[in-house]
What we know:
Blueprint: E1 2-4, E2 12-14, H1 19-27, E3 34-37, E4 43-47, H2 49-57, E5 77-78, H3 83-93, E6 97-101, E7 107-112, E8 124-127, E9 148-149, E10 152-153, H4 154-164, E11 169-174, H5 178-185, E12 194-199, E13 221-225, E14 228-230, H6 234-243, E15 248-258, E16 262-267, E17 270-276, E18 279-291, H7 307-316, E19 321-325, E20 330-332, H8 336-344
Parallel strand pairs: 2-3, 5-6, 8-11, 8-13, 11-12, 15-19
Antiparallel strand pairs: 1-7, 3-4, 6-7, 9-10, 13-18, 14-20, 15-18, 16-17
Amino acid sequence: xxxxxxxxxxxxxxxxxxxxxxxxxxxxxxxxxxxxxxxxxxxxxxxxxxxxxxxxxxxxxxxxxxxxxxxxxxxxxxxxxxxxxxxxxxxxxxxxxxxxxxxxxxxxxxxxxxxxxxxxxxxxxxxxxxxxxxxxxxxxxxxxxxxxxxxxxxxxxxxxxxxxxxxxxxxxxxxxxxxxxxxxxxxxxxxxxxxxxxxxxxxxxxxxxxxxxxxxxxxxxxxxxxxxxxxxxxxxxxxxxxxxxxxxxxxxxxxxxxxxxxxxxxxxxxxxxxxxxxxxxxxxxxxxxxxxxxxxxxxxxxxxxxxxxxxxxxxxxxxxxxxxxxxxxxxxxxxxxxxxxxxxx
Length: 345
């Protein structure tokens, strides 16, 4: 299956990146291979944790640049190469990610072999029905989840990453300009998944669409806002949810806020000190949840309700509600500035 470079750009690192940082990236398990590019954006090699171990045994330092540990004899395909030949080469060499190159040796995308990737029994509900009013004119004729990141709709990036991690069944909750989403994704065959639609006749918030499920799934469900871009591995939060015997698990991320003013510390009328523009750290809702299927019983049919309110309701009747910290890259594309910032990165 072909994925654009924007969908898998987290697999690409600069030749100047340190071996230590690359080890951290590889350690999350969802990225078994990294692709190394030079300052001209040309691919010059690949690296796995095995390549790094061999380099360290030869005396290379963990603080050295990754180009000292990479394998420069990589396998790639040209843009005009027959897809059957690509797939044959991947099967013969047991390759999961095959970079597709243009004439300038720039990566334009990847062919991904999902054979052997374990499918998860969990279904995912992606909330895509919001109006996106804070995006201004950008969402006048386009639902926010379909805004492009590079040349790929944001929702396609989200769905593709989850599919790569083993999610095979999706529900897309749609309302505002929902036909655009439905026309683009269809039944999901193009992405090797099954897609059903929860069609909201009115706005139902970030949780109300769950009440539209025609049948209750048997396994824990992933619920995720349709404007969240993250590199996290969904299997981690599912494992945590199962291990903790949770009724509901909320993903959280660390958020830092820098006060633009000097903060004065004092005791009554006596000045103590001033702290210039201090940075405060908070744990915020990541817009990603894993919930027990029976949570459906707590959601009023066809009524507006947000996921945090559902979790508060569950907690009030004695259900186990936990939090799981996501440490990978995470972006909430809630405002126009957020969207433009991600586009520039």
